[in-house]
């Protein structure tokens, strides 16, 4: 690891690289596309993100790039980030001080839900946990343009899940483990909703009271950083047992 990094930055780089490998392990990648970003300690307008062209399982603490909220590269590196991530990640990092990590995915299940006018159902165990916690943003094409930023932020509001209609999803958390935990809930909700739609018969619906209580309880669990950290660490242990070191010099 570089001597130029503080202990906090070193820890963050390792954790973010681990998150990229987790997304790869669970099959939630989109080839070399999409992004996971995390704000640097003490640097509210700068964040770490992957270099464009790398597979997620090729991401290491060393090859992560530093960019600012406008997409300018701060790192001394020949690698470049994907410009399609600036409008989405940069706008959230630049405006939401409570969100330090942003994960964007295009899984089949999430994209299918993003295609539906109703969006997420809140009648399954995981969907109920998202009740009143999801914002929706109408599709405007590939997220490349600065003028879309304020509209995306308005669609997100004070929530931590943004469904990009006809596109995918972005989730934000106070740190990497909490963002990953929330993404897992979103992914499970989407998968179950897709499976439910294949089965004939009327669904059992939940009352708003039950949905709201479930969502509040789930949000409390995610806000408990110890629970999110335990889940994240368990997932990392799992892939290291199966894959061994995730990068050169990785400590198993």
Automatic annotation (TrEMBL):
<protein>
    <submittedName>
        <fullName>Class II aldolase</fullName>
    </submittedName>
</protein>
<dbReference type="GO" id="GO:0051015">
    <property type="term" value="F:actin filament binding"/>
</dbReference>
<dbReference type="Pfam" id="PF00596">
    <property type="entry name" value="Aldolase_II"/>
</dbReference>
<dbReference type="InterPro" id="IPR001303">
    <property type="entry name" value="Aldolase_II/adducin_N"/>
</dbReference>
<feature type="domain" description="Class II aldolase/adducin N-terminal">
    <location>
        <begin position="14"/>
        <end position="194"/>
    </location>
</feature>
<dbReference type="GO" id="GO:0005856">
    <property type="term" value="C:cytoskeleton"/>
</dbReference>
<dbReference type="InterPro" id="IPR051017">
    <property type="entry name" value="Aldolase-II_Adducin_sf"/>
</dbReference>
<comment type="similarity">
    <text>Belongs to the aldolase class II family.</text>
</comment>
<dbReference type="InterPro" id="IPR036409">
    <property type="entry name" value="Aldolase_II/adducin_N_sf"/>
</dbReference>
């Amino acid at each position: 690891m570089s001597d130029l990094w503080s202990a906090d930055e070193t820890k963050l780089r390792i954790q973010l690289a681990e998150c990229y490998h987790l997304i790869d392990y669970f099959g939630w990648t989109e080839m070399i596309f999409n992004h996971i970003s995390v704000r640097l300690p003490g640097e509210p307008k700068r964040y770490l993100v992957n270099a464009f062209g790398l597979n997620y399982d090729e991401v290491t603490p060393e090859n992560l790039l530093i960019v600012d909220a406008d997409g300018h590269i701060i790192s001394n590196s020949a690698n470049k980030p994907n410009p399609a991530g600036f409008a989405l990640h940069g706008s959230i990092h630049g405006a939401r001080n409570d969100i330090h990590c942003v994960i964007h995915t295009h899984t089949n299940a999430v994209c299918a839900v993003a295609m539906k006018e109703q969006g997420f159902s809140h009648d399954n165990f995981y969907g109920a946990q998202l009740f009143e916690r999801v914002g929706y943003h109408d599709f405007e094409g590939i997220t490349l343009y600065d003028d879309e930023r304020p509209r995306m932020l308005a669609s997100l509001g004070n929530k931590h899940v943004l469904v990009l209609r006809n596109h995918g999803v972005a989730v934000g958390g106070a740190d990497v483990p909490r963002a990953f935990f929330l993404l897992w809930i979103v992914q499970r909700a989407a998968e179950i909703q897709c499976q439910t739609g294949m089965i004939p018969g009327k669904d059992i619906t939940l009352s708003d009271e039950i949905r709201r209580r479930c969502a509040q309880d789930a949000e409390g669990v995610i806000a408990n950083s110890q629970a999110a950290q335990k889940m994240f660490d368990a997932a990392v242990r799992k892939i290291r047992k199966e894959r061994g070191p995730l990068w050169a010099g990785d400590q198993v």
